[in-house]
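Changelog-adjacent note: as of this version, every example in the card shows the full chain rather than a window. The one below runs 71 residues end to end.
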Amino acid sequence: MSLIAFLAPDEDMLATARVTLAMTHPEIRLEQGLLSAGVRKARTLAREGVEIVITRGGTAVAIKRPSWALR
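Full-length structure tokens:
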């Protein structure tokens, strides 16, 4: 099981991540989720044992909010 996940905001970035990481870091789990969908996805990933979620912008800010883990 992967301990690291990359959470892309859209299909284009997800496709870029697939190409970029396929050969160098195939152990990184790639998922898509933006803002509240990204928070839900991060919550699911954490329940599945993922310890590190890489994301950006508003999704990262939303995940950092203390209340996200309680829902």
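Structural remarks: Residues 4-70 form one domain.
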